[in-house]
TrEMBL record:
<comment type="pathway">
    <text>Cofactor biosynthesis; adenosylcobalamin biosynthesis.</text>
</comment>
<dbReference type="Pfam" id="PF02571">
    <property type="entry name" value="CbiJ"/>
</dbReference>
<keyword id="KW-0169">Cobalamin biosynthesis</keyword>
<dbReference type="GO" id="GO:0016994">
    <property type="term" value="F:precorrin-6A reductase activity"/>
</dbReference>
<protein>
    <submittedName>
        <fullName>Cobalt-precorrin-6A reductase</fullName>
        <ecNumber>1.3.1.106</ecNumber>
    </submittedName>
</protein>
<keyword id="KW-0560">Oxidoreductase</keyword>
<dbReference type="InterPro" id="IPR003723">
    <property type="entry name" value="Precorrin-6x_reduct"/>
</dbReference>
<dbReference type="GO" id="GO:0009236">
    <property type="term" value="P:cobalamin biosynthetic process"/>
</dbReference>
Amino acid sequence: MDVLILGGTTKARQLATRLIGEGVSLCTSLAGRTKSPRPIPGPTRLGGFGGIDGLKEFLTHHEVKVMVDASHPFAATMHDHAARACRDLNLPLARLAPPSWRTQPEAASWHWVNDHDGAAQILVEMPDTILLTVGRQPISHYLPLGPRHVIVRCVDAPTEDLPDGWTVLQERGPFTLDREREIFSQGVATLVSKDSGGTDLDPKLTLAAQTGVHVVMVSRGSAPGWGDELSTIDDAVQWVRDHEPSSAEK
């Protein structure tokens, strides 16, 4: 196999589509945290690798030539394992992620926090209704908020027992501005999001700016020290081409 893509994102799916169309031998790896992932072109695998050593064994056994880490910008453990495994094997690595929203003009008015615990702390002073759009895995950090009016939006339902006053919307994006208006019409006064990033704001952030809704934004962690940082599918496709082994090497 020439390319291993660490997937689970729209960009990973788009990259796999492009590379499959160019005849590149690849496999997309999914962590398996979402019960019903969207279909992905080409071969896929599901589940973890068993740590850094397990990932190195997989890369070596399958003779992977390059790896593109297109997992979620907040998949910190996966980013770290990918960087350390590729560094140890001297394997080319690219991290594909949308640019941070920090450069957007609206970001200056947001309440930026370092992690979910920080978000939960600042929410104590924020008005209800709170719309949580951080996925189901970090929900435990927000349970100390207690019986307030909180809307949790996620693909799969949280496994925790939620306090009184909390409701769950099981929905999968991307979301339209009209759909966000429907949700905001339930009295949303505070929005909690993660800096997933992009060249444009998500509709919910655009609507928050238009309606004066408070925004609490969880920052990304620092990027690993190994590998190239890319932000577009075109960049990633070109990167793979530049690092493809020659016919003689194959």
